Amino acid sequence: MSRATSAGGKPPLYKIVMLGDSGVGKTSLVARLTNPERPLNHDISATMGIEFDTQMLDTEHGKVKAQIWDTAGQERFARVLLPTYFRKAKGVILVYDITNAKSFESLSERWMAQLNDHASSDDLAKLLVGNKSDLEASREVTKEKAEQFCQEYGMDMLETSAKSGQNVLQAFEKLIGIVHNRALAANKNKAGIQGMSSGGGGAAPSTVKLEDGKKGDAAGTDACGC
Ligand code: G3D
Ligand code: MG
What pTM does this model have? Predict the structure, then answer.
């Protein structure tokens, strides 16, 4: 009945987006998740525009599919593409590089503002990710600073390394778990208040007609109907 219930049916699909400065490792994190065997310096450096990948993930309430959107983090692209990027997103991973203080400052100075401009913040589950944890000797952002940010904006955090793979799966699973729980709770609420929901409301997970593993580019824009 509920589209957020995976039992017996297709797993629900949730769109999540990667945000953060260029160079923090967003593309590397997605690549590590979707293909852990892929060496880090695969041809993944300069992402152009928007692309996405899908990945099945486990939650405490069954399997769900994450459609992970990734951007270049370049303003000249981001500005026009942001509405498309955020449309129907249910979760966001805010990424900074623990060896780059500026990338952390950008989160509050730039990315949180863009998030609030383009997405209904209450609707979005958020996770803070400090990437490049393998470069401890070059650390510029303390965990305490990051925890403060989390308290201020009400989110959890994890430090990851797309290079070693540390915490990468955990980060995506953590966010998607929050997203799925919210969708289940919202559907339950809806069912309780209105009887059977026929979908189309805000509680249902965003479903976008796409094939597994297919990269975004043009298809991504079509998929969101923009
Ligand atoms: P972006 O998508 O956020 O722009 P990328 O970032 O994924 O393109 O990564 C930017 C650079 O950081 C890449 O190096 C990549 O290999 C490196 N990188 C990403 N994640 C990690 C990590 O966890 N640890 C380390 N040590 N490096 C990482 P190049 O040299 O290709 O530009
Ligand atoms: Mg990139």
Answer: 0.81
